[in-house]
Amino acid sequence: MLSVKIQSMQKSDLDGVILIEEKAYGPHHWSKESFLSELSNELAKYFSVFNENDELIGYCGCWQILEEAHITNIAVTPEYRRNHIGEVLLTKLIDECYKNMAKYITLEVRVGNKPAIALYEKYGFKSLGTRKGYYQDNNEDALIMWTENIFYDKFKSGYEKNVSALKGKINIL
Fold this sequence. Notes:
alpha+beta; Aminopeptidase; 8-stranded mixed sheet; 5 helices; 8 strands; 31% strand
């Protein structure tokens, strides 16, 4: 079973984050300066995930404004995709929302990113529309997804069930 460690993103993680950004998003990725700015943004929370050898294998981030959180990015290095790393990062962000009393979570995802859409739907996100031509690299539309109030019993019970199943697939240190 794969073991991973999640921690708050540090400036020292940024070279590795940019390498993952390049692999995940091609030439239209965030810059190192953008991440530096995010790390000093009081509304932002960013996390890095490492494997057993302390190699950076993914990261995620969100902004929280009052009772709403917006997931800005979740990315995993290609060698570790399909190993539940993205799911671990998503649950970390949802846990942060619970901790900080954010009731609703939103995000945009490429309409063609079926694995990500399936993951978000598994965790209770629903599509509430599209942003036409949102992605600059190919003018692809973005699906806008939202959760219901994460403190509602229906959401919480589904979340807890998914997290319990996830613990049997990956070890979080």
